[in-house]
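Hello, quick one for you while I still have it in my head. A protein chain has come my way and I'm curious about its shape. I'm sending you its amino acid sequence along with the backbone structure tokens. I'd be grateful if you could look everything over and explain what you see. Here's the protein in full, and shout if anything looks odd to you:
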Amino acid sequence: MTAEGKRSQNRIEYTILIGLATLLFLSWIAVSLQFLRPERSRAGMDAVVQDCLGIISSAQRWYRSSSVVGGANRQSWHDLSFTRIGYEEGVQPDGRTLINNNARYTLRVPDHGSSFDLIAEGSGGAMVVYRGITDNPPPDPEIR
């Protein structure tokens, strides 16, 4: 083999080696992202659940408060809105919808007014639903 042929073969081997190293590196990145994805999803869901618990706590505090200070005086959940329980930023014009970086939260009060539901719609279609919330500890959520 000539010197030029040897150099050409070395360049080809070097190019193949660089290509394999690049492929290995990109494969490592793809696998790493797959392992991190469930953690990001779980962290996002945890943030939504924490927001829900904060909203429920604020709503229950409002429900227990005297009507003199703007509370429900333990009478009914009918007047429940995000603004009444202390939320301002992200509250939509209907007063019962709040949007933040974690999710879209909606308060629903049935006609009987003796409880309320909280529906949280996170990114990617994930939902956290608390139904029949009263002045007692909140029920377990439905997570979809």
